[in-house]
Amino acid sequence: MPKVTSKDGTAIGYDSKGSGPALILVAGATQYRGVDETTPVMAGVLADRFTVINFDRRGRGESGDTPPYAVAREIEDIEALIDVHGGRAALFGMSSGAVLALEAAAVLGDKVTGVVMYEPPIDVEQSSETSWKEHAEMAALAAEGRAGDMMAKFMAGVGMPPEAIEGFQQSPAWPAYEAVGLTLEHDYRVLAEATDGDRYPDRWAKARMPVLVVDGDASFPFMKSGADWVARGLPNASRKTLSGQSHEYDPHVVGAVIAEFLGG
């Protein structure tokens, strides 16, 4: 599989499919090509209109993870992928990856032609202090190398019952997820910075390209209010709620929305 070298020397693994304008898929927490079955299906849906780039975020799969971590490093990873695919690309981001995609768009400007965000997991009822506390807890576990505990904590935080977590830990799939547990600190950092100080980030106004913020009506209620909150402060944003979709979306449905919005 091909790799691109980011600004700090980190190798980022990716694959590409199709032809047309570049479209980079930015994964959410725990997602990477080794375990993610949904994103490759969606890439196939989009491949007749776009060159679809699916990559492992740093610390996952075939990508390195040069310390120290900063959100800016992940933006540089996305920029490196853009540069190797013609210098301009659209972005699709899932969950925390949606927030990262928007952060990248705000920094990279004209290099990003459009953004589709699927359910940025921002709970507008949660204080910035709580978000930073959750990040600090993950960072402390990461410092001790407790990847499995981080994964279990994340699963509990998204509502998975203790018995389900225990069962998953005993399953053949667990090692592949535990392998990327340390990267959860990255996602918690992305979200904590997005809501820092309990105010809308002024920097997001620099994302002047078309942005579509999407949620599903079968998802957690806070996803809708979070999507509304993100969209309201952007200079060129649209909103869409998909009937019957949840945080685990149908790649054919979401792929069609992406294609329509980006006009491939």
End-to-end gap: 25 Å
Mean pLDDT: 97
For the record, what is the CATH homologous superfamily label of the largest domain?
Alpha/Beta hydrolase fold, catalytic domain
Radius of gyration: 17 Å
Work out the number of β strands.
Answer: 8
| CATH architectural arrangement of the largest domain | 3-Layer(aba) Sandwich
Q: Indicate how many domains the architecture comprises.
A: 2
Q: How would you classify the helix and strand content by structural class?
A: alpha/beta
What is the general shape? Answer: globular
Low-confidence stretches: none
Spatial order of the strands forming the largest sheet:
1-2-4-3-5-6-7-8
**Into which percentage range does the β-strand content fall?**
15-25%
Count of helical regions: 10
**Helical residue percent band:** 40-55%
Q: Which CATH top level class of the largest domain fits?
A: Alpha Beta
Q: Please write the string of helix (H) and strand (E) elements.
A: EEEHEHEHEHHHHHEHEH
Please outline the major beta sheet.
Answer: 8 strands, mixed
CATH topology-level fold name of the largest domain: Rossmann fold
